[in-house]
Design a protein that fits this description.
286 residues; three-stranded mixed beta sheet; alpha/beta; 2-enoyl-CoA Hydratase, Chain A, domain 1; 48% helix
């Protein structure tokens, strides 16, 4: 998907940032790697969000992806990780600093006074769904693929948004199976606000944003915080903040916790994906 508007990338390595009207656009911009969420990209997204919040000329922030996919998830290589996280030291590993960092990054969106909108096309997987789901509003392409397949054999989500974005029946189905669904299905179940034909996604999203950005910023903030408060009272922040415990146990303590990594190392990634996803794919799930 081509970018819209002028992109100012000189300050960033892996994202673009532009302001047009009262809309700040943050573009995930490593298309040859499906906009995987490296530590560098995550830091730049957070910095750009703070930049948009501090700009009185901006009312709304938009997060989108350059290339064929919105985001394929976290960068598993972690080659740009801080030294402590790269080393895998026991002192850091048992407190799951990676997951704590994911929660802290995407709670930036939750805590922002201004609304943040995701525009999703192509693949939106694993950590990409966490980024999308923590946005205040998500508009997606009908044919987008949205899901969290690592839950089939690797671990629980870093940011457990499922119970807060859909019904219990749907949350349990998607978190237990790791199945992916289309953008159109995500809209029907209420995971996202709306879906559009892929060729209309950008024009329809921008139509929504032009109207939304005309609302006074202080009123947008009041309404966002009013809705957020209801979920805070129901325990959303506490639940998400404790996600690292389940993630650590599922990734490190349970039997076969390292099976995916072991198969990938010994037989290659294709074999590991077959071990994780094969039973689902043979039944026609994605």
């Amino acid at each position: 998907m081509p970018d819209s508007g002028e992109q100012h990338t000189e300050e960033y390595k892996e994202i673009g940032y532009a302001v047009d009207g009262r809309i700040a656009t943050i573009t995930l911009d490593v298309p040859d790697q499906r906009n995987r969420l490296s530590f560098t990209m995550r830091g730049e997204i957070v910095a750009a969000l703070h930049r948009a919040e501090a700009d009185d000329a901006v009312s709304v922030a938009l997060i989108r992806g350059n290339g064929p996919s919105f985001c394929a998830g976290y960068d598993l290589k972690r080659s740009d990780a801080p030294a402590g996280l790269r080393s895998g030291s026991d002192e850091l590993a048992w407190t799951d600093q990676f997951t704590r960092g994911c929660v802290a990054d995407w709670m930036t969106i939750w805590d922002m006074l201004k609304p943040v909108v995701a525009m999703v096309h192509g693949n939106c997987l694993a950590g990409g769904t966490e980024l999308m789901s923590m946005c205040d509003i998500a508009f997606v392409a009908d044919d987008a693929r949205i899901g969290y397949p690592p839950m089939r054999g690797m671990g629980s989500p870093d940011v457990p948004y499922f119970p807060w974005k859909m019904t219990m029946a749907q949350a349990k189905y998607l978190q237990l199976t790791g199945n992916s669904i289309t953008g159109a299905d995500a809209a029907r179940m209420g995971w996202v606000a709306k879906s559009f034909p892929a060729e209309e996604l950008e024009s329809e999203t921008m139509r929504e944003l032009r109207a939304l950005s005309s609302v006074p910023t202080d009123l947008l903030s009041t309404n966002k915080q009013s809705v957020n408060q209801a979920y805070e009272i129901m325990g959303m922040r506490t639940h998400i903040a404790q996600s690292w415990q389940f993630h650590y146990m599922s990734m490190n303590v349970r039997p076969d916790a390292r099976k995916f990594a072991d198969v990938a190392r010994e037989q290659g990634l294709k074999a590991a994906l077959e071990w994780r996803d094969g039973a689902f794919q043979r039944e026609g799930f994605i």
